[in-house]
Design brief:
321 residues; Aspartate Aminotransferase, domain 1; 2 domains; alpha/beta; three-stranded antiparallel beta sheet; pyridoxal phosphate; 15% strand; disordered C terminus; seven-stranded mixed beta sheet
C-alpha cells in the first residue's frame, strides 16, 4: 500500500504502473464508459501513445454487463478497470463477476473504490485498488494505492526509496493519520447510518416524480450506494437549479461529478442514454434527517417551476404522478 496526494493520482499511478509492467503482454486496455475522468484521461493518453482501448458500455441504470466486460478480454489485454460504484449515480458495478473473468484470463483488475470505501463492503478479486480520504471525511490530499501481492506493477516515474518505490517524496504523516482515524469513525457510523440514509433516498426517488413534471430519476433503485441521488429536469439548466437551491440553503451539484466546474454534459448520463439536461446530484451527508429532507422536497418543486417560467416554459404536458 502507498499513499498519494489524491484519489486521481492513485488511479493514474495504478493504471500507468500496471500498463508499464505488462508491456510485453500487450497494449490493450479495458475501461467502462462511466469510469471517473482520471481513468478515462489515462485511457486517452494510452491510446494516443499507440495503445488500444475497449470501452464497455452500460445499461439505463449505468451498470456494466459482466458478460460484456468478460467478452472484451483478449490475449493482449494488459489491464482492465472497473469502478466499485459510480461516482455520479451511485450504481454498484458487478466487480466480483468481472474480477472472476479477469482472474481466469490472468488480467489484473484495477478498481476505483473512492465512493465505496467506508460506506459499503468492498468487492473482492481486485488486483489494484484506489481510494481518496476526503470521500470518507478525511483530509484532502490523501489518496490510497493498494497493489495486491503478486500483481505486476512498475512505477512509471523515476524510482524513489520511499513508499515502496511506488510514489516519490515524503508521506504526509499527520494527514495520513487523520485519514485513518476518520475512516475508522466513518465506517462505524456508516454501518448503522447507511440503511437510514438509504431509506431517505428511497423516499426522494418516490416523491420527486410525484411533485415535478418531466423529471427522470437515474441510477439503479436497488443496487446502489446509500447516500446518492441523481435526477434530471427538462426545460431548466442544471446550473440554474444549483444557484436557486443554494439561495434556499441547499448545496447540490450538477454535471459530471469529476468535472462539475466545467458544467459540460455528464459523460455518465450520456453513456446511460438518459436525460442530461437539468441534471442535479444530491449527496446526503452524515446527520441528514427527515426534517432536512422534507424541507428540500418542499422547496424543490417551486424552485423548478420558477426557473422554467423564467426560461419561458409556462406549462408542460401531463401531471405529476
Amino acid at each position: 500500500m502507498a499513499f498519494t496526494t489524491s484519489g486521481t493520482q492513485a488511479v493514474q499511478l495504478g493504471m500507468l504502473g500496471a500498463l508499464n509492467a505488462r508491456r510485453r503482454v500487450g497494449r490493450h486496455l479495458i475501461v467502462s464508459a462511466v469510469e471517473h475522468s482520471s481513468v478515462l484521461h489515462v485511457a486517452e493518453q494510452f491510446e494516443r501513445d499507440g495503445g488500444r482501448v475497449t470501452t464497455v458500455g452500460v445499461d439505463l441504470y449505468g451498470r456494466v454487463s459482466a458478460e460484456e466486460f468478460a467478452a472484451a478480454l483478449r490475449p493482449d489485454t494488459a489491464l482492465a478497470c472497473l469502478q466499485s460504484a459510480n461516482h455520479e449515480v451511485g450504481t454498484v458495478q458487478p466487480v466480483d463477476e468481472a474480477a472472476a473473468a479477469c482472474r481466469a484470463a490472468r488480467v489484473p483488475l484495477l478498481v476505483d473504490a473512492a465512493q465505496s470505501v467506508g460506506r459499503v463492503p468492498l468487492p473482492g478479486g481486485w488486483s489494484i485498488l484506489t481510494a481518496s480520504a476526503h470521500k470518507w471525511g478525511g483530509p484532502p490530499g490523501v489518496g490510497l494505492l493498494v497493489v495486491r501481492k503478486g500483481t505486476r506493477w512498475k512505477t512509471p516515474l523515476p524510482e524513489d526509496e520511499r513508499e515502496g518505490r511506488r510514489v516519490p517524496g515524503f508521506e504526509n504523516v499527520p494527514a495520513i493519520s487523520a485519514a485513518a482515524a476518520a475512516l475508522e469513525a466513518f465506517s462505524g457510523e456508516s454501518a448503522a447510518d447507511g440503511p437510514r440514509l438509504s431509506a431517505l433516498i428511497d423516499h426522494m426517488r418516490s416523491r420527486i416524480p410525484q411533485t415535478i413534471l418531466d423529471v427522470e430519476i437515474v441510477g439503479d433503485p436497488v443496487r446502489r450506494l446509500p447516500h446518492l441521488l441523481t435526477f434530471s429536469c427538462l426545460y431548466v439548466e442544471g446550473e440554474a437549479i444549483i444557484t436557486e437551491l443554494d439561495r434556499l440553503g441547499f448545496e447540490v451539484s450538477s454535471g459530471s461529478s469529476c468535472t462539475a466546474d466545467t458544467l459540460r454534459p455528464s459523460h455518465v448520463l450520456e453513456a446511460m442514454g438518459v436525460i442530461t439536461h437539468g441534471n442535479v446530484r444530491v449527496s446526503l451527508p452524515r446527520g441528514t434527517n427527515a426534517a432536512d429532507l422534507d424541507r428540500f422536497l418542499a422547496v424543490l418543486p417551486d424552485a423548478v417551476t420558477r426557473l422554467r417560467r423564467s426560461a419561458g416554459v409556462t406549462s408542460t404536458e401531463g401531471t405529476p404522478r
